[in-house]
Amino acid sequence: MKKPTFFEGVSVALIASIAATVLFTALGSILPLEAVIKFLIALFSLGYISYLLYRSSKRPGRVTLVAGWLIATATIWLITPSLALYGLAQLVLIWLVRALYHYHSLLSALADLGLNAVATVTATWAAYQTGSLLITTWCFFLTQALFVYIPPRLFRKERSQLASTGNQDHFQQAHRAAEAALHKLSTIH
After folding, report:
1. Residue 115: which of 152, 156, 150 has the closest Cα?
2. Are 55 and 99 a contacting pair, CB within 8 Å?
3. Per-residue pLDDT tens for 11-36?
């Protein structure tokens, strides 16, 4: 499967921001404001997670992940008193999906966590400055689109240079061969 692109992320941001505005306007007149906001956060979190899963080359665990997301979302909805904590919990769930399905190293996942923090700050700033849901959602998802520039494995060259030195014992060589075989088996469709 082809890797997601930044321009694809811009398209997702545009669709999400327009859809959020339309749905908020439609539902805001018939439901309590807090319930509408929680519903929209959950809906767009699920939509974005579905996009991430669709664009991932990894296949195992998708149904379990979605079921876990549903259980976590229902639990968070019921026990979280504030919208900020609810949104933060959904952001952590998005980060976990990207960490599990798009990265191969802890450093890449931590860089993505930093990107999520920047996206949150950007969206909060946009909401404070403009009061517009359209611009707030746009800024959040536009910043999220930058995840494609985080390499799946940071410092890959240093690991390969260490492996090529030849000074490692037989166990480490066998371990690398086993990891390579497992990687080949896991990528067979």
Report:
1. 150
2. no
3. 999 999 999 999 999 998 899 998 89
CB atoms within 10 A of CB 73: 19
From CA 75, how far away is CA 73, in angstroms rounded?
5
Rounded Cα–Cα distance for residues 20 and 38 (Å): 12
- Rounded to whole angstroms, the Cα distance separating 125 from 130 reads 8
Hey, where are the domains in the chain? 6-149, 156-186
d(CA 185, CA 63): 21
Instruction: Give Cβ neighbours of residue 150 (< 8 Å, ≥ 6 apart).
Output: 103, 108, 111, 112, 115
pLDDT in tens, 1-12: 578 889 999 999
Radius of gyration of the chain (CA): 20
Q: Contact at 8 Å (CB) between 85 and 37?
A: no
Those residues whose C-beta lies under 8 Å from the C-beta of residue 116, and which sit 6 or more positions away, are 91, 94, 95, 144
Backbone angles phi, psi at 47, to 5 degrees: -60, -40
DSSP 4: P
Instruction: Write out the two tokens for 59.
Output: 């296949």
Which residue blocks in 104-148 are alpha helix, DSSP H?
106-130, 133-144
Distance CA 162, CA 182 (A): 20
pTM over 0.90: no
